[in-house]
Amino acid sequence: QVQLVESGGGSVQAGGSLRLSCVVSGYIYSYYCMGWFRQAPGKEREGVAVIDSVGRITYADPVKGRFTISKDNAKNTLYLQMNSLKPEDTAMYYCAAVRRAVCSMFASYFDYWGQGTQVTVSS
Fold first, then answer.
1. pLDDT bracket for residue 48 (50, 70, 90)
2. Which residues of 50-70 are buried (b: 16+ CB within 10 A; e: fewer)?
3. Which of 3, 48, 83, 113 has an alpha carbon within 20 to 30 A of 97's alpha carbon?
4. Cα angle 105-106-110, degrees, rounded to a multiple of 5
5. Residue range 101-113: average pLDDT?
6. At residue 27, does pLDDT exceed 80?
7. What is the percentage of the chain residues whose pLDDT exceeds 90?
8. How far apart are CA 7 and CA 31, in angstroms?
9. DSSP-assigned beta bridge partners for residue 92
10. Which residues, including other chains, have CB under 8 Å from residue 21's CB and lie 6 or more apart?
């Protein structure tokens, strides 16, 4: 049973930073594609950043240059460093994983999800 547990969300002012963490348990961590998604009220869940089994990374255009995805294999933890936050980044952020070597930015591609952590950015 794969389990994903996010933490690190909160409320910040525009221009601030947050670091999200996602601890993964229950599987061979290094053979999975992992990613961060977000969903704002009334909107569809969208991909923010994904990282594949060999470390290739894809970012959504709105977060390029501001967000950084990384993982610590020794700690089975995925991170999302978010800098220069904007009000439009406000959303519930989810960690996701799928047992495939190649990644995708589509939410439907992923099999396992965390419970989400709220990020609120005020102007």
1. very high
2. bbbbeeeebbbeebeeebebe
3. 83
4. 100
5. 94
6. no
7. 82
8. 23
9. 39, 118
10. 6, 7, 8, 77, 78, 79
Q: From residue 56, how far is each of 33, 50, 78, 114 by CA, in Å?
A: 10, 8, 14, 22
Residues in the chain: 123
* pLDDT for position 29: 59
* Residue 24, SS3 per DSSP: strand
Look at strands 33-39 and 46-51 and give their pairing.
antiparallel
Give the DSSP H/E element, type plus range, for residue 86.
none
113 within 8 A of 4, measured Cβ to Cβ: yes
Decide if 39 contacts 92 (C-beta within 8 A). yes
Mean pLDDT of the chain: 94
